[in-house]
Every structure is written in structure tokens, then in C-alpha cells.
Design brief:
Structural class: mainly alpha
Order of helices and strands: HHH
Number of helices: 3
Radius of gyration: 14 Å
């Protein structure tokens, strides 16, 4: 895995803010960065229509 300088900057930002917006072009490492930052949180991908539908129909239960 490539060690990116943005990882330490993102970690610092998370000490000051409750949220972090990660944007960029396709295949640029956004998901990898998210998984590194939030390794102890579940990962959900809304590209699957069934997952998206479940979240839309029951947001509290999701």
C-alpha cells in the first residue's frame, strides 16, 4: 500500500472537526484513505441498489 502524505493531514483535521469530506477523481484512493482513517467503523457502499434502497426506506434502522 502506498503511504500518502494526506493521511497525516486528514488525521489532524479529524482532531479539530467531526466530519471530513474526501473528494477526488475515480481510482484516486478515496476509499482506501477512508478505510485507513476509520478502520474501526463499518464500510458501506451505496453503489449496490439494494443497499441504497434499504438506507432510503429505513434510515434509522440502517
Amino acid at each position: 500500500m502506498i503511504n500518502r502524505a494526506i493521511l497525516s493531514e486528514a488525521k489532524m483535521a479529524l482532531t479539530q472537526f467531526r466530519t471530513l469530506c474526501i473528494t477526488g477523481p475515480r481510482q484516486s484512493g478515496k476509499t482506501t484513505l477512508s478505510k485507513q482513517l476509520f478502520y474501526n467503523k463499518p464500510y458501506v457502499n451505496f453503489e449496490n441498489p439494494a443497499v441504497q434502497h434499504e438506507a432510503e426506506q429505513n434510515p434509522e434502522g440502517f
